[in-house]
Amino acid sequence: EAGVVQSPRYKIIEKKQPVAFWCNPISGHNTLYWYLQNLGQGPELLIRYENEEAVDDSQLPKDRFSAERLKGVDSTLKIQPAELGDSAVYLCASSSGVGTEAFFGQGTRLTVV
Amino acid sequence: AQSVTQLDSQVPVFEEAPVELRCNYSSSVSVYLFWYVQYPNQGLQLLLKYLSGSTLVKGINGFEAEFNKSQTSFHLRKPSVHISDTAEYFCAVSFMEYGNKLVFGAGTILRVKS
Hints:
The complex is a heterodimer.
Chain A: E1 5-7, E2 10-13, E3 19-24, E4 31-37, E5 44-50, E6 53-56, E7 65-68, E8 75-79, E9 88-95, E10 103-104, E11 108-112
Parallel strand pairs in A: 2-11
Antiparallel strand pairs in A: 1-3, 3-8, 4-5, 4-9, 5-6, 7-8, 9-10, 9-11
Chain B: E1 4-5, E2 10-14, E3 19-21, E4 24-25, E5 31-38, E6 44-50, E7 56-58, E8 64-68, E9 73-78, E10 87-95, E11 101-104, E12 108-113
Parallel strand pairs in B: 2-12
Antiparallel strand pairs in B: 1-4, 3-9, 5-6, 5-10, 7-8, 8-9, 10-11, 10-12
């Protein structure tokens, strides 16, 4: 069974440029998470989807960040424009429902220069 | 607010010694508890989980954890560590009253020395 797939693995962009990250969750998993992980810190939730509905986006900086999950499967996280402070690892995870563990992708390491 | 506290940012220990990594969470009616491990340049992997039943749960690689509801803790233990256990360990709590919201602690770096 394929795990959570994220792309790209690494991205370097100049500040003020846009960037997008893609996530393909495990087949059949209704819940999808996007987390941000800064160096030396734990993952911080950005947004959580149940199927195609964003049920928790309170930590998503909506002035520059957006996300979508079309048809309740793949998801895209976008930053426009990127700032130096956005440099971090962006993690995608999925789970099959309440009380089940979240499976994580390898993450996308973003460097904004 | 939902929060998870890992009390130690780094834990150095000699090989074959026992270790305990501590985790406390903000009080909540119903929680599910997880420990994840992250090796350098790798993704997060599940070590173990507590959903219900026995408060002592066993995971992979010889790790175990004990759920203490009165102290709102879920400490991770291993009786004898190996060099290969060097990694960062994250405690995560799913707060059910907030609809399966999964919150992570800041992590504890376990450094096993020979």
